[in-house]
Amino acid sequence: MAQLVLTPADKGEVDWICLDQEGLGPVSHLRELDFTPCFEHLSGSGMLVIFGLVAGARCAQLVRRQERHETSEGARLLWAKLLIGALPLVGLSSAQLILTVIQHHGSVISAPVIDAVVTLISSLFIGVLTYYNHTRTRRSSTILLTLWPFYLLEQAVAIRTQVLLHRSPSALFAIQCALLGVGVISWTLECFCPDRVKQDPDAEPEDKEFPYERANIYSRLTYV
């Protein structure tokens, strides 16, 4: 991968968004097999912006559907997804944004702050999409199950970069690690599809339905 080399004039033009001495990168010239922090922030933000657009469109579609009357098991799974997954994501993302703004002395136009803002907004979309998908469909969200592997990989790479920089542990680093952990939990919970709905006595039992109808994207891709 070619290294983007910035001239002094170029650096002056991007200083307002990239405050790190390594510049926009993408490849770090100080560490082997690593990206620059600015590139990680901006690439991660770009991925989450795309997710937000797709998730927003999906929520607009789902909100027009009739809500399912689910069983108690399904309700407990939904509460677990929201309380153990979505809510901690919003809380951690909010704390990350506040600490990032403080660390950058109130500068709101910089790669780390932009990344923190986009992460917070995306965490809200995750909660909303989780709710509507669970209450209005009968399978796990394909959008979320596609997002999580890429998001967790991006978080792991960013954490690795912080470790390679040999910076002393900070609250922001702890939050980043916590986001990775909560992301793993949320991903795991999302793999469980919404529970069977309460049925009309005259309806055909769901036990007779083809399992493919309720399978998530992973099961469908590996179905033989």
Automatic annotation (TrEMBL):
Keywords: Membrane, Transmembrane, Transmembrane helix. It is a multi-pass membrane protein. The keyword Membrane applies. It is found in: Membrane. Residues 17-165 form the ABC transporter TMD0 domain. Its main location: membrane. It comes from the Eukaryota. The chain crosses the membrane at residues 39-57, 78-102, 108-132. One of its GO terms (cellular component) is membrane. This is ABC transporter transmembrane region.
